[in-house]
Amino acid sequence: MALTLGIDASTQSVTALVFDCAEGKILQKSSVNFGADLPQYKAPQGFIPGGRYGKVHADPRMWLDGLELALGRLRETGAALDKITSICGAGQQHGTVYLNQKGLEQLASLDPGKSLHDQFTGCFSRSTSPIWMDTSTTEQCRAIEEQLGGAMEVCRRTGSIAIERFSGPQIKRFDGHQPLAYVQTARIHLVSSFMASVLSGTDAPIEYGDGAGMNLLNLSTLDWDPELLMATGPGLREKLPPVVPSQTEVGPVAAYFVKRYGISPQAKVVAFTGDNPSSLVGMGATQPGKVVISLGTSDTFFAAMPEPLTDPNGWGHVFGNPLGGFMTLQCFINGSLAREKVRDALGLDWAGFSEAIAGTPAGAEGRRMLPFFGPEISPRMNAEAPLTSGFASDWTGEKASARACVEGQFLNMRLCSEWMQLKPEVIYLTGGASQNDAIAQIVANVFQAGVKRLSVPDSVALGGALRAGLCSGDLDAKVMDAFFEEASSGAIVEPDRELAEVYAAAAREIRDLWPA
Ligand code: XUL
Q: 346 and 242 in one domain?
């Protein structure tokens, strides 16, 4: 029996999951919600509320408590943790953990008689960690870009322009605001590499998947970029762990977890990656040709990419694909909440919204809408209300707005992903709104590709468990393929080929709504 353990250290929770590599199935899982389970951190949504000037931080000890509680709960489910051969996982991307010298040494001397929380108190040179929701670093982004010769040069090297939430600009701000504490920093980890460090009781490396979300990793050399290091912080190379290929074994699990949770001492820890790269694995989309569109608070579009192309507009991102090559990720802030706002403005429930879509012909009779109700990053712009064209009157008065809204979102997604040069054969649709048939049909028609609904809950933790199995050799690729075959066995939504021209023309009109 070969079991692997996958861990997802995400923004609001920690999830741990046991996968049976021989049978190809998930056996047990446990989850810890920071708000509900660890109220002492006063972070109901996983971050300290009330940060000023865009500051969004979390206490890294909350992540450690979350890990311990999730492992304890997993053991309570009866999971055979003594049969775990390999452990891997992911963290929310971009967040950084700042260890002082004591912290770096602490990693190698974990005492099973004490909690991680207690052992790491006093070990951080920055007591709280900036996470991906932090937007406080615009000034640092511009400074880095200026030093490198422009935003597109940063994008060419790292796969993204300098982005507020990315680790490099966050590190630069720390150096600028707390230079003494910066000097006292012995190691800067990502959430992912910090988790792998603790689990292995070593100073774990950063791998290409999550490393690419830092504005520091050069995608051509797959090493820290010397100019970017210099533009970001003094002596930064010494403060960062080395970068390694994603499928790198970090070492055996720390004795701490053997003694406290009964994990097999033979279990190896594999380098942790970011939640999005892990999800690519956990959705079975690591081969080019498959695209995942995840419909959530914000919508995301991601796919494997053989070559590291970069977005000439600077809106998309390139990360490492944990199973080799690269992946692309494009985020659309105005996702579910925007659909909901349009639905509410039309006075409809979801059933009524779907009926309104069905009652309007494809192409919405020339009505175009970018349903943005706040800042958007794809394309980058500030909007307070939807941008429209082709409406005879106010959009709120027309039922056709339901179709115009959904078509507009996916036409915009199609335009924003053109630079990736993907030819999707199948689009996996996931997330809340993916079950809506009217929405799935629009996706198929707009992209002129078949759409499959993929129901893989916990794809991030699962991605970790699968990577662990592939790395240890316990998981056969065929078993993994069979698992995904079953997870996407529902009917395929076929595109209507006759609509190709309608949507090509509609896409041009949506582009006309973009800011100049
Ligand atoms: C991706 C991003 C988020 C975080 C948290 O760039 O910022 O998706 O990874 O999920």
A: no
Q: How far is the CA of 365 from the centre of ligand 1 (A)?
A: 36
Q: Give 132 Cα–ligand 1 centroid separation in angstroms.
A: 6
3-state SS record for 427-449: EEEECHHHHCHHHHHHHHHHHCC
- This prediction has a pTM of 0.94
User: 11 CB under 6 A from ligand 1?
Assistant: yes
Residues found in the chain:
516
SS3 content of the chain, % helix, strand, coil (to 5): 40, 20, 40
Distance 286 CA to ligand 1 centre (A): 18
Cis peptide before 234 (omega within 30 of 0): no
Task: Clarify whether residues 266 and 319 are in a common domain.
Answer: no
User: Among 253, 277, 301, where does a domain finish?
Assistant: 277
Number of domains in the chain: 2
Range of the domain at 125: 3-277
For residue 248, the cross-strand partners are none
Instruction: Report how far ligand 1's centroid is from the alpha carbon of 230 (Å).
Output: 25
- Identify residue 26 by its one-letter amino acid code: I
Residues 6+ apart with CB under 8 A from 291: 285, 301, 302, 303, 422, 424, 426, 427, 428, 447, 449
Burial 426-446 (b: 16+ CB within 10 A, else e): bbbbbbebbebebbbbbbbbb
Pocket of ligand 1 contains residue 294 by CB under 6 Å = no
Given a contact cutoff of 8 angstroms between Cβ atoms, the answer to whether 231 and 173 are in contact is no
On whether both 103 and 141 belong to a single domain, the answer is yes
Pair 188, 258 in one domain: yes
Give the CATH number, domain containing residue 177: 3.30.420.40
Q: What is the mean pLDDT, run by run of 10 residues, along the chain of 516 residues?
A: 95 96 97 97 96 97 98 98 98 98 98 98 98 96 98 97 97 98 98 98 98 98 98 98 98 98 98 96 92 90 91 95 96 93 97 96 98 94 96 96 98 96 90 88 97 88 98 96 86 96 98 95
**Do both 401 and 502 map to the same domain?**
yes
Query: Does residue 36 fall inside a structural domain?
Result: yes
Instruction: With CA atoms as reference, report the closest residue to 266 among 280, 279, 255.
Output: 255
122 vs 309: CA distance, rounded Å: 42
Nearest alpha carbon, ligand 1 atom 5: 92
Q: Three-class SS of residue 70? A: helix
